[in-house]
C-alpha cells in the first residue's frame, strides 16, 4: 500500500548531502569544471548558497582550492568529473600535498552498478590519489555521503594539513534517501581543535637555549601562516631580540624595515649563529637538506608533523605542535627569566644589518638599471616599489620568480603566495582567482614567467567572466630560462636552446582579446606607469614585459639539480 503523500518521508539526494557537508565546513565556493557525473552537487550548492566558479581546466580548479585555503585559513574544495577530469586535477592535489594546504577534491565515478564493467571515464582514482593525499576513499552509499565528506575534511588536519580526495559513484550521488537515514554531521561538532602547544619540558629547554644564546636567529616558515601564528611570531622576535628570516607563506610576517626583518643575510646568519630555530620548514632542497646550517650551532626544529622533525639532519631539540602556540609559550618562559639574552644581542643584529646593507647596495645598480632588454632585477624592483599593504603578491614561474624572491617584500602577513616545494608552474591564475574571490577588497598582483602563464593562462577568461580584476605581469624572455641555464652549463651553449625556447608571444594582445586590459613594455621607465594603468583599469590585466633572456637569477645558477 502506498504511503499517503503527507506522511511520506523527506528525502535528499547525494549531491545535496555533499552541499550540506560543504556548508557545515564553512565552504562558500567550489571551483569546478562540469561533467555529467557531478552535476547533482551543483544543484545542491545552489540550494545551500555555495558559489560555483567554473574554470577551463581541472588543474586550475585544484590550484584554486589550494589557494583559497591559504588565503582564508579554511579548507578549499574542487569538484571535477571522473577519469580525465580527475587526472587533470592530480597536479593541483600534488602541489597542495607538498605545500601542506588543506583542500578536498571530489571526483566523479561510474555507477557502482557498473563497477569493473568499463563505464564511461572509469579509472582507479583512489589508487592514484592515495600517495598524494592524507585521505582517499570511495563513498559507498548515499546515506554515508555527508558523513564521509566530513571525515575527509577531518583528515585534512591530521598532523600538518594537506589534501583529501573522494570519489562518488554516479548512482550514489544521484540517488535519494530518507533524510532520517543519512548521517549529516553538525557544523562545529565533528572536528576537534588541532592546536597543539608542544611538550612543556621542550619549551622550557628552548627558553633556556634562548637565554644563553649570543647569536640566535629564527627562520619562520609557512606553518607560521598556516597556524595563523603571526602575532605570536612577532612577539617572539621582538621580546627576545632575535633576527628573523621568512620563507614561503610566512613572508610578510614582519613588515619591511622592521629592525628584526632580515632577508639577504640568511646564509651569513646560518654560518655564524650559535642557535638556529627552524619553524615550520622541512630540511628539503630549499634548505640544502640541512647542510647549510653551521655544524657547531645548536639547532631547534618546530613542526606540526612529527615525521618532519630531524629528517635529513640531526637536531638538538625537536618540538611538535602549533608554531604560534609554541613560540608564544617560549616567549613567556624566556621573558620570565632575570636574563633572557635580549639586551646583549644588539651587536649581533648590527652585524647582520651590515651584511644585509652591503648585499642590497651591491645589487641596487641592477635594480635601477635602464638597460634594454629589461634587466629582471629592474622589473621586480618596480613591482616591490608598487605594491601596498593591501597587495597579495603571487609568484608563478622559474627564473623570473627566483629574482622576485630576493627583492619583493610583502608588506602584510598572508600576502605572499608561491607554489611551494613541488615547484609547480601554472598556479598563478588559479591563485589569483582564489585570492580575489576570498579577498575582494585586496589588490592581487601576480608575476608570471611566460612559460608558466602558458600552462593555464586560458583561465584569464574565467577571471574576466567572474569580474575578478587582478594585475598580471609577465616577465617575457621567450624561454624556459631556468632550464635553459642548466642545459647550457651542462652541455655547452651550442645545446642550450634545445627544448626550452618559446615564441615571442604578445600576451597583452591575448588579454585584450579575452576582454581584459593589456599592455606591452620594452623600456624600464614604462613599467611603473603600466602598473598604475592596470590598477586603474579595474579589469583582469596582463602587462607583457620583455626581459633580457641572457640574464639569470643567482638562485637559478646555484640550483642543486645542476650540481
UniProtKB/TrEMBL annotation:
Keywords: Metal-binding, Thiamine pyrophosphate. This is Thiamine pyrophosphate-binding protein. Residues 396-545 form the Thiamine pyrophosphate enzyme TPP-binding domain. It comes from the Bacteria. The keyword Metal-binding applies. Gene3D superfamilies: 3.40.50.970, TPP-binding domain. Residues 203-329 form the Thiamine pyrophosphate enzyme central domain. Pfam families: TPP_enzyme_C, TPP_enzyme_M, TPP_enzyme_N. Its cofactor is thiamine diphosphate; Mg(2+). Signal peptide: none annotated. InterPro entries: DHS-like_NAD/FAD-binding_dom, THDP-binding, Thiamin_PyroP_enz_cen_dom, Thiamin_PyroP_enz_TPP-bd_dom, TPP-bd_CS, TPP_enz, TPP_enzyme_TPP-bd. It comes from Streptosporangium oxazolinicum.
